[in-house]
Amino acid sequence: MSASIPDILLPAEPDKALVLFSGGQDSTTCLAWALARYGHVETIGFDYGQRHAIELEVRPALLDRMRGMSEAWRAKLGEDHMIDLSLIGKISDTALTRDVEINMQENGLPNTFVPGRNLLFMTVAATVAYRRGLNVLVGGMCETDYSGYPDCRDDTMKALQVALNLGMATRLKLETPLMWIDKGDTWRLAENLGGRALVDLIRADTHTCYLGERGALHPWGHGCGTCPACVLRARGYDAYLQRRQA
């Protein structure tokens, strides 16, 4: 049975959002979700020494194309913030920050897990939001289709929201619109938000492959086709097509 899609037909709220925007499928869908929901939206990206740094290269053009999707989105989409978090790459030893083979570790987590990454991302984003007067953080964390990363879990995000608000005397909201849907419904959410044009934009212009390969354009997008991110994206695209035909 297909997971439920969040309500995207709500009127724009007065809240101002900051979207964690990597240049990948999930964050692009989250950006569209925020643009459909909030009156002002800014984006933030992180250079943490990632092996797939090509995601940083596609971000500017991708943001321009998102602005071109509609006049309303163009008016709402504000400043982009790029943050140097190369410290993560220096202190971590993972398949996303080192040129090593992707495999499972003794603790049951894949070595693509970067300890503390999302915790630090959200903390830095909250700091930028504080300065910019933004009161919503939007991230693409999900525990329906994921690799077991503990910093993608709903409990983690809820606890982090409490900690950030206590530590900063704020009332920030952490929104994770993909938390309870699978990758097939992430594609479907994109179509509901921006039509087939947004689906095609995500296919052709985003980057998710862990190995940083662009190569040929597959039906589901660019990538090596064999890493966990590519396999998940391809499987989700197939499920999305099947659900559209049902």
Automatic annotation (TrEMBL):
GN (gene name): queC
Entry-linked InterPro entries: QueC (IPR018317), Rossmann-like_a/b/a_fold (IPR014729)
Gene Ontology BP annotations: tRNA queuosine(34) biosynthetic process
EC category name: ligase
E.C. numbers: 6.3.4.20
Family (UniProt): Belongs to the QueC family.
Highest taxon of the lineage: Bacteria
Protein name per the record: 7-cyano-7-deazaguanine synthase
Species assigned in the record: Noviherbaspirillum humi
